[in-house]
Specification:
Layout: H1 20-30, H2 35-52, H3 56-72, H4 75-90, H5 95-113
Helix pairs in contact: 1-2, 1-3, 2-3, 3-5, 4-5
Length: 115
Amino acid sequence: MSAQPGGPCGPLIPVPDLSPDALRAAVAKIAPSRLPALTQHLFEATTNAQQTQSLAPLRAFVHSWAVFIAIERHPERAARLRELERIVDAGEQDPAKVIDEIRQIRRVAEAEAGL
């Protein structure tokens, strides 16, 4: 794991390695309620990888959870993303700028995760 600069309070945890075990450990620390979802996703990705003889499902698993962790390890970033998603869901305003900000948060998270 490597440390990355964060907001005023900094990140909750360092950036984890991109392995299922490291991602699981990170989720256990920052969002333990999401462990069942991670476990189910890993099971499905492994099954699909075996059935298709492709690593693509495992790559998608790693990408999805690495981005989730990169967002959630910064509480301010995670809260802002949830607010933006709420705005889009509520249809309160033109979603174009909101969606652009959501995309920017995800791009930053992907870069931070090393994807």
